[in-house]
Amino acid sequence: GAGVSQSPRYKVTKRGQDVALRCDPISGHVSLYWYRQALGQGPEFLTYFNYEAQQDKSGLPNDRFSAERPEGSISTLTIQRTEQRDSAMYRCASSLRGTEGKTQYFGPGTRLLVL
Amino acid sequence: GENVEQHPSTLSVQEGDSAVIKCTYSDSASNYFPWYKQELGKRPQLIIDIRSNVGEKKDQRIAVTLNKTAKHFSLHITETQPEDSAVYFCAASKTGNQFYFGTGTSLTVIP
Predict the structure, then answer these.
(1) Please, what is the average pLDDT of chain B?
(2) Which of A4, A22, B52, B87 is an S-S bond match for A107, by CB 3.0 to 4.6 Å?
(3) Are strands A53-56 and A110-114 parallel, antiparallel or unpaired?
């Protein structure tokens, strides 16, 4: 079946612009996670949802970052007033249910470049 | 919060030899430890995981061991093959939701 998908796959933007990154989880997956992965580093937790409820946003770097999942399926990560340090690979993952350590399936990522 | 350290950062082995990657964690409440394999340009994929009520788990050529007292866990790959070459990430979680990842180990299997 279809895996986790993300769009766009690549995004180049100018400093100060807003960007919206989309994640389409595996159908039926309750939990959705956002990570940021710098080159040569492991994924860094940003936030996660169970259904439409944002359970934990402690990993969001600052208030320019926000995420939503209004209908409990597709999620959008928004970065306002982008800065060069925001450049990274942004990945989402989904799982059947977050509790008890269910397997997370990662998406292909969105590579963001802020000029 | 949790802090996961992973060693070594790079590892080269001859085909057929074993490879061992080690991770330590700081939060004694962590109870779930997955390992992910990420090939170049691909997404991370789960290869094996272990929960804190188990000391060892094996799946064909891959095994993971957990020492809760010392707060470390290790990935063991036996009879390595060139297709095992990838970056491997360990992770720790205490809720099954927020995962803390290590910095990765780049494994190269030399034919």
Answers:
(1) 94
(2) A4
(3) unpaired
DSSP state of A64: T
B12 inside 8 A of chain A by CB: no
Return d(Cα A51, Cα A69) in angstroms, integer. 8
Tell whether omega for the bond before B8 is within 30 degrees of 0, i.e. cis: yes
What tens digit of pLDDT does each residue of A6-45 get? 999 999 999 999 999 999 999 989 999 999 998 888 999 9
Give contacts of A58 with chain B, Cβ < 8 Å: 1, 98
> DSSP characters for B39-56?
-TTS--EEEEEEETT-SE
Q: Report the C-alpha gap between B86 and B107 in whole angstroms.
A: 5
Other CB atoms within a 10 A radius of the CB of residue B3 amount to: 11
Q: Is B41 at the interface with chain A, CB within 8 A?
A: no
Residues 6+ apart with CB under 8 A from A104: A31, A33, A93, A94, A95, B34, B46, B99
Q: Within 13 Å and on the Cβ side, how many CA atoms surround B86?
A: 19
Contact (Cβ atoms closer than 8 angstroms) between residue B4 and residue B25: yes
